[in-house]
Amino acid sequence: MDSILIPDLSGQTGVTWDLLPRVSRTFALTIPALRPPLRDRVAIAYLLCRIADTIEDAEGLPTGVQSELFRMVLDLIEHPTKSSLHFRKTWCGKVDVFHQALMDRAGEVLETYAGLPDPIRMAVADCLREMIGGMQGYVEISQRAENPHRLCETISDLEQYCHVVAGTVGLLLTRLFAEELGTSWATPSRYEQGRRFGLGLQITNVLKDVEGDRNRGVSYLPTAPAPLIPLAVSHLDQAHAYVLSIPASRADMRVFCVWASHLALATLARLARNQPGKVSRSELAELLEESRAAITDNAALDVLHKRLRNLVVCAATSAAPDSTRNGP
Predict the structure, then answer these.
(1) Are both 301 and 156 inside the same structural domain?
(2) Phi-psi region of 5 (alpha: psi -120 to 50; beta: other; left: phi over 0)
């Protein structure tokens, strides 16, 4: 199992490994499991997506400034050697110290991105163009809404939002994986599975972050009460199929995907039981060890996935009379 243990990154230097643990819990855990150079490519792509997320979520940004920052990011992605000084001077959002550090060091992130091979940069740029274009559309929607800003009226609206901020990342990861596995692996159905993987993770985040979003005057929940937990599970079923399509010889890729998927299912089970969504350290350690031990065995992974999804389904079913508690 040594080949799939998380590598010791304590000796790693540079902006990527300084910032990643501070702006992500899940991906700081999963990205280091990847082999280089894929590890570094995914990490840089994630940080660039996180910069876009930070612009979207920051408090105190006038709408015009927010739109200008989005435009600047797209320009810098197209011209990564261009100075980011104007971007950093324009930035004035209110965020925690870790995301502020990310914005302060955006130029260093872009410098690292500029050194990636052309096909990788093209894949990241395509993702960010679609992501930021969609985010700008939601900024316009929020301008027209009364507080709290309800951005999703229907389940279809929610899935479209989740596609913008996470489905695009699933498509990007599939492109990056295809660079390692070969283009024959990246079939249209594989891209769709990757996209739905992103949707499953994001719907889980929406459910977990209801109160935090509400506190900043935003709601992503549909107007009518909806069975969002089963919806997330259906997308994570596709994530499981995505994992099994990855050759067992690339256990690092499987670990990266499985840990995110299993953590999402454990979070959904807690939410279905009306518990806080954050998985405890002991539960997390158990999840990671079980999946790592089974990572090259499709049958064993199938058993784990079914067990975790059944925990969610059973908890959601038993809580059916209260299933609208996450509704508006």
Answers:
(1) yes
(2) beta
Residues 16 and 71 in one domain: yes
We report the CATH number of the domain holding residue 289 as 1.10.600.10
**Number of Cβ within a 10 Å radius of residue 53:** 18
Is 15 within the bounds of a domain? yes
Report the C-alpha gap between 38 and 42 in whole angstroms: 6
Task: Locate all alpha helices (DSSP H) within the chain, ordered by sequence.
Answer: 15-23, 26-30, 38-57, 63-78, 85-90, 97-104, 106-114, 118-144, 155-162, 168-181, 188-208, 210-215, 228-245, 251-272, 281-293, 298-318
Mean pLDDT of 300-325: 82
Contacts of 229 (CB under 8 A, 6+ apart): 207, 268, 271, 272, 312, 316, 323
Q: How does pLDDT run across 22-33, given as a tens digit for each residue?
A: 998 788 889 999
Q: Which of 144, 159, 177 is a domain's end point?
A: 144
Distance from the Cα of residue 254 to its chain's centroid = 16
